[in-house]
Specification:
The chain is an alpha/beta fold and about 425 residues long. It contains 18 helices and twelve strands. Helix content is about 45%, strand content about 10%. Helix 5 runs parallel beside helix 6.
């Protein structure tokens, strides 16, 4: 693989010499601050917020700070290769774009912009179950580039089966089952603003584009409830209609489907009744490899092996579900030890930089998933923002790896690390 990082640096510096400054900040804090100035207060709260006092959000970052990289000198790193192999497929870098819902809060091009950017840089993208753009549209934009699909387990098995069939048909190469969101966590930022984007018809495109869901709408009879009519509720109604597929605002409004779609979605999109035994249903209805996202306990990692899943994603949903939960990097070593390289182990939540990728690999991850950083880049400059951010992360990881004495991710291990010594 041709080394990339020095060329990326050269491009940036030469552009600066010609008076063209970078559009996308390089630091994670800079990304967040820039995005905050662009998007609405409600949108930023939904994207940036976490559960409770947001201690888990903070711990996800603190966990990375507990470890230090110990570079080793006089290693020949003139030829560098950042590629890894997942599911028998070679990927250029050890990271993927995690599924993030309601991306229209960040940018009007939403998932489609991310799909195009990921495809242009050959980075796998995990389509969100709570997307603004249907999976088929994003898949078409990515052509043959690697794409996976995230599944939230609905109360309707028919709908779950339909999602599985659609994911296979549009070329997704793996299924990511999110385990930690059978109910929404307690998120004070959203609660303080009394805002849930799904109630405006946002982030439910996988449902409104699904044949099973749309068939259910024809016979669905929601419970009648008294509603306050004011400018706020009218804006919400307009949003519902605009986000529902099809042409003709008044035609869609008259059908009643936009309102019914939101109501039906809120009744069925989470399923707290799901258990380990339900994994058999997935095995019977898809050929796709199954990754379980949300594993934090070593016993759950062992159960995943026992149930024959194909991979694990160590995740606490970016700190959005359980306040005070264990940080993912703290959970990783024990889980990696249990798995013992039998299946891939990925990690998300708190990953912000190329150095973070290095640390996660050293502690047992095969790859990582980025979430909020690319969403902030999307907010800043749409498809190009995500593309520029990917280029920067690819370069930073390559330089971190090489300057630490490793020419390939396979050389990154616990010997490259030490814990922070406290006085």
């Amino acid at each position: 693989m041709q080394p990339y990082a020095l060329e990326r640096q050269k491009e940036i510096y030469l552009n600066g010499f010609a008076g063209k400054m970078p559009d996308v900040p390089f630091s994670s804090d800079g990304l967040e601050e820039a995005a905050k100035k662009i998007i609405s207060k409600k949108a930023f709260a939904y994207i940036a917020g976490g559960a409770g006092e947001e201690k888990t959000v903070k711990q996800n970052r603190t966990a990375f700070d507990k470890w230090q990289i110990v570079p080793q000198m006089l290693k020949n790193v003139s030829e560098r290769d950042t590629s890894v192999t997942l599911l028998n497929k070679k990927l250029p870098s050890p990271f993927l774009l995690a599924p993030v819902g309601v991306l229209s809060l960040a940018h009007h091009d939403a998932d489609l912009a991310v799909a195009k950017a990921a495809a242009s840089e050959n980075i796998p993208y995990i389509f969100s179950n709570q997307a603004t753009v249907p999976m088929e549209v994003c898949a078409q934009a990515m052509n043959n580039q690697t794409k996976w699909f995230q599944l939230y387990w609905s109360k309707s098995r028919d709908l779950v089966e339909s999602f599985l069939q659609r994911a296979e048909k549009c070329g997704c190469e793996a299924l990511v089952v999110t385990l930690d969101t059978t109910m929404l966590g307690w998120r004070p930022r959203d609660l303080q603003l009394a805002y849930l984007p799904f109630l405006e018809g946002k982030g439910i495109a996988q449902y409104t584009s699904d044949p099973v869901f749309t068939e259910m709408l024809k016979t669905y009879q929601p419970q009648k409830a008294e509603r306050t009519i004011n400018m706020q509720t009218l804006r919400g109604l307009i949003s519902m209609v605009n986000h529902y597929p099809g042409n003709g605002f008044f035609k869609k409004l008259k059908s009643g489907f936009p309102i019914k779609a939101v109501q039906l979605f809120t009744e069925m999109y989470t399923n707290p009744y799901t258990t380990w035994a339900d994994l058999q249903f997935l095995r019977e209805h898809t050929r796709l490899p199954i990754f379980l996202k949300g594993i934090l306990h070593a016993q759950d990692a062992q159960r995943a092996l026992d149930y024959g899943v194909d991979g694990i994603i160590v995740s606490n949903h970016g700190g959005r579900q359980v306040d005070g939960a264990i940080a993912t990097l703290d959970a990783l070593p024990q889980i990696a030890n249990v798995v013992n390289k039998k299946i891939p182990v990925l990690l998300d939540s708190g990953v912000r930089s190329g150095a973070d990728v290095f640390k996660a690999i050293a502690l047992g991850a095969n790859a990582v998933c980025f979430g909020r950083p690319y969403v902030y880049a999307l907010a800043i400059q749409g498809e190009n923002g995500v593309k520029q951010w990917i280029k920067n992360i690819k370069a930073e990881f390559e330089l971190t790896m090489a300057l630490s004495g490793c020419a390939h991710p396979s050389e990154i291990n616990i010997d490259c690390m030490q814990t922070v010594v406290t006085q």
